[in-house]
């Protein structure tokens, strides 16, 4: 990780972050928890299935991210999806079939899918 040593470097970093946030405004953000417990429960399978379904449907406005622990061990694999202009929604127990359903139903149509987990945090995306 680099350090920020000058005020100009700090300003440049700020502009970089603001530009990245602006570029994401109209995108669907899919954040897959890949903590150890999630990987053990199939988190990588869920992520790969969602990436495959996004490609199969020709979606170009989806950005994938991965995170560490989201504190939902009991419900892994978990996936947080943020539709443009909406609050993030976390889904639990995301196996391969549910991962594909999340893309075709929630991402593409905005239709709710079983397995929503109430969250108690606010996400900061830089
Ligand atoms: S260790 Fe499993 S969610 Fe944190």
Descriptive notes:
- It is a single chain.
- Helix content is 41%, strand content 17%.
- Helix 3 (43-56) packs across helix 4 (96-109).
- The longest helix is centred in the first third of the chain and has 18 residues, at 7-24.
- The model has no long low-confidence stretch (mean pLDDT 92).
- The radius of gyration is 16 Å and the shape is globular.
- The protein is α+β, with helices and mostly antiparallel strands.
- A five-stranded mixed β-sheet has the order 2-1-3-4-5, with helices on one face.
- FE2/S2 (inorganic) cluster is lined by residues 35, 37, 69-73.
- Residues 35, 37, 69-73 line the site of FE2/S2 (inorganic) cluster (FES).
Tell me how many strands there are. Answer: 5
User: Helix/strand-derived class?
Assistant: alpha+beta
Helix content: 40-55%
Helix and strand pattern: HEHHEEEHE
Radius of gyration: 16 Å
> How are the strands ordered across the major sheet?
2-1-3-4-5
Main sheet overview: 5 strands, mixed
Unreliable segments of 5+ consecutive residues: none
Distance between the termini: 15 Å
Morphology? globular
Report strand %. Answer: 15-25%
User: What ligands are attached or bound here?
Assistant: FE2/S2 (inorganic) cluster
Q: Quick check: average pLDDT?
A: 92
Number of helices: 4
Keywords:
126 residues, alpha+beta, 4 helices, 41% helix, 17% strand, globular, binds FE2/S2 (inorganic) cluster
What's the arrangement of secondary structure elements?
Layout: H1 7-24, E1 28-33, H2 36-41, H3 43-56, E2 62-67, E3 79-82, E4 89-91, H4 96-109, E5 116-117
Parallel strand pairs: 1-2
Antiparallel strand pairs: 1-3, 3-4, 4-5
Helix pairs in contact: 3-4
The protein binds FE2/S2 (inorganic) cluster (FES).
FE2/S2 (inorganic) cluster (FES) is lined by residues 35, 37, 69-73.
């Amino acid at each position: 990780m680099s350090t920020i040593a000058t005020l100009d470097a700090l300003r440049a970093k700020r502009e970089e972050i603001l530009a990245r946030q602006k570029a994401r405004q109209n995108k669907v953000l899919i954040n897959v928890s890949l903590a150890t417990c999630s990987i053990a429960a199939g988190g990588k399978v869920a992520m790969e299935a969602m990436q495959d379904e996004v490609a199969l449907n020709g979606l170009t406005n989806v950005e994938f991210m991965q995170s560490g622990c989201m504190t939902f061990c009991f419900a892994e694999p978990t996936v947080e999806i943020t539709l443009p202009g909406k609050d993030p929604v976390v889904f639990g127990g995301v196996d391969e079939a549910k991962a594909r359903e999340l893309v075709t139903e929630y991402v593409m149509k905005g239709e709710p899918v079983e397995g929503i987990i109430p969250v108690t945090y606010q996400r900061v995306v830089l």
